[in-house]
């Protein structure tokens, strides 16, 4: 069975005033329906919590059957949400008049999925949508992409011209329209059969990557790529200056609206520079390497604030804040996502290894100690005296930790052969 994959193709729309107003109506209706249904569910959920707390205060336990009998806990059923949407449209007729029915259903399904994640423990309680923060909507079907004429048909809006920058590949499955700082964009998600460029990854091209702050990344072969500081610093200075000026402007005035528009455009420019950089670097790495080894980093945990609480205040808060800003500015998680899907398209392998002690282990003798890295950039082993760039040493450890034997085994499985890689490699030097 052929494996299938989905990719999104993003284009900038060129709507006229009537179409732009229609898209704003769609966004407003979706946001209104989402918030209205969330408010209903929030009231019911609050009643459930109050009843639960009352039972526990009196020493009573609330079984599953009793919870169902209360009929106040939100029912995780998409038909229940669709029925609530039907009632909402009867109460507010403008939802039928100004918005497509399937677009509203898709927004309600987003709320349903948010509740599912919350009750499974994979996310927080759904929040209300604010204007300009989520001005978007999605079509599951009914759209038509006319690439020859550079336009796309959206039900209840009509044909809208778009900037045809590249060809659409695969079968379009859904379309998402969203407003950003510099205009409206359409994202067409397409499905196609995965046909890798290579059938057998070349293990000799395997490389380990160590992410850093001063350097964006360092490879196990000694090469490195500098961070985005030089490109983003001028924009960050302009953003900081504009934010200081906004503080002295009158709220609600035309001047502050212009300043906020300029600020959003600067942030959009910053995001575009970052995305372009990440795409260039990931493409370069995937082009030259079939096997890439990275650390299994929890970026969300790494970028948490160190302020702590009133009872337990944090230490080195300012230094940790600067580190968090650097990590988020470089968008490590997005970079790993780019590497993963581009390697999948090529037919390569992305391996994630345990990051523990990769920066404290000597690549020569294997000695582990905090004293090996007293300085940020220099690694010097206190046991054998080996000295090197700290990031380069860590990248070599990352590659070794992946296990060349394991990669050889994967390659042999692809070739359809069974071979014991332990005969060719020293298993004592491999840490998995």
Descriptive report:
This protein has 432 residues and is an alpha+beta fold. Helices cover 46% and strands 18% of the residues. The chain has twelve helices and 14 strands. The chain has helices spanning 17-57, 64-70, 78-91, 94-98, 101-120, 229-246, 254-288, 299-302, 317-330, 332-346, 390-402, 404-415; strands at residues 4-14, 136-139, 144-146, 151-154, 158-162, 171-180, 183-193, 207-211, 215-219, 224-226, 291-295, 349-353, 378-380, 387-389. The strands form three sheets. Strands 2-6-7-1-5-4-3 form a seven-stranded antiparallel beta sheet. Helix 6 (229-246) packs antiparallel against helix 7. The longest helix has 41 residues, at 17-57. The radius of gyration is 27 Å and the shape is globular.
Write the layout of secondary structure elements.
Elements: E1 4-14, H1 17-57, H2 64-70, H3 78-91, H4 94-98, H5 101-120, E2 136-139, E3 144-146, E4 151-154, E5 158-162, E6 171-180, E7 183-193, E8 207-211, E9 215-219, E10 224-226, H6 229-246, H7 254-288, E11 291-295, H8 299-302, H9 317-330, H10 332-346, E12 349-353, E13 378-380, E14 387-389, H11 390-402, H12 404-415
Parallel strand pairs: 8-11, 11-12
Antiparallel strand pairs: 1-5, 1-7, 2-6, 3-4, 4-5, 6-7, 8-9, 9-10, 13-14
Helix pairs in contact: 1-5, 3-5, 6-7, 7-10
